[in-house]
Amino acid sequence: xxxxxxxxxxxxxxxxxxxxxxxxxxxxxxxxxxxxxxxxxxxxxxxxxxxxxxxxxxxxxxxxxxxxxxxxxxxxxxxxxxxxxxxxxxxxxxxxxxxxxxxxxxxxxxxxxxxxxxxxxxxxxxxxxxxxxxxxxxxxxxxxxxxxxxxxxxxxxxxxxxxxxxxxxxxxxxxxxxxxxxxxxxxxxxxxxxxxxxxxxxxxxxxxxxxxxxxxxxxxxxxxxxxxxxxxxxxxxxxxxxxxxxxxxxxxxxxxxxxxxxxxxxxxxxxxxxxxxxxxxxxxxxxxxxxxxxxxxxxxxxxxxxxxxxxxxxxxxxxxxxxxxxxxxxxxxxxxxxxxxxxxxxxxxxxxxxxxxxxxxxxxxxxxxxxxxxxxxxxxxxxxxxxxxxxxxxxxxxxxxxxxxxxxxxxxxxxxxxxxxxxxxxxxxxxxxxxxxxxxxxxxxxxx
Length: 448
Fold this sequence. Notes:
The chain is of the alpha+beta class. It has helices at about 10, 15-50, 55-75, 80-85, 90-105, 115-120, 125-130, 135-160, 165-225, 230-245, 250-275, 275-280, 285-295, 320-335, 380-390, 395-405, and strands spanning about 300-310, 340-350, 360-375, 405-410, 430-445. The protein has a five-stranded mixed β-sheet. InterPro entries: HATPase_C_sf, HATPase_dom, Sensor_HK_TwoCompSys.
């Protein structure tokens, strides 16, 4: 089934896609700036190399002002963000008006100079500038008057330079063909942006739906374990306590210890599957529970640094950061053969969007999760083989982070081999550094 294509207006409502569209539009503005500078240099070069016999000062004034204007625009426009994207198309009319004005002033000297005849060649650059627009209608609005003005300028110069009508018509036809090509290129470019944007938007929605399904399944499994197996274990422990009071001996103590360990294991599993504590106490507490649950392997020490995370902070990426930390720690425990793991969470930005009186205003910043281990190190080839074999945990986590506008890097630890110290001085430390960064939106009405 074909993917429905959204228009630019619909795509602009998608925050992640909006950034892509804005970046693409700003690239078009940079290309316009380059072409516009070339046009300005062309106008100045024509006036300098083939100056008109009349109104030379006026011609130079227009040409120099236009060059300065193009340089200033090339510096300012690409930094103007959405405002530049919305209004830069109006500059195309200034380009057309400037070139027309210079050609008209220079045409008064057609009997003695070729200034006007050479200048009208510059009209071919204007459709190329218009082609960088994502609006074919704007391109048409520029191309049509460009063709008309070119024809009128060529017709006005015909009496002086003796150009035959057939040449005027053919030259106008070439400019019109360039204009048509510019309109078609603009249409193709818009179509491609809409198609790619629609695919990206669909991918983002599918990832959101997948995440929701995964969260729901984990919640249901956690509830099943809590209401089922864990309750039976707790009930058995109560019965054993009663038996102990009745005089049972060491066997019951061993059964009680086994049930106690089973209860602890079930609680740890519940925390990993669905961290209710994440919603109640926040990300640092949830990560502390995760670290405690993952620290059961003998010889493995996991430290957690939450000093860079403001107290009572709630963000829209807490669940994603927790899931990423869980996946990274699971990989360390299973594959890294590490002895020490250091986990850090940090937040850079405004803690709340508008303070206590913000009324639900939003603020934002960047959340960062760093996991460093001293294990065998990351092997990019092994990661590729694992992905090919269907082990997509870390890969799917990276996709979800990127879909939320963030990044996830997993790289070898820098600094070279060093000793692990006590009793294992000969073992080299390589290790891995994993860094997840995500943009954050905070609703002040939801902060505690």
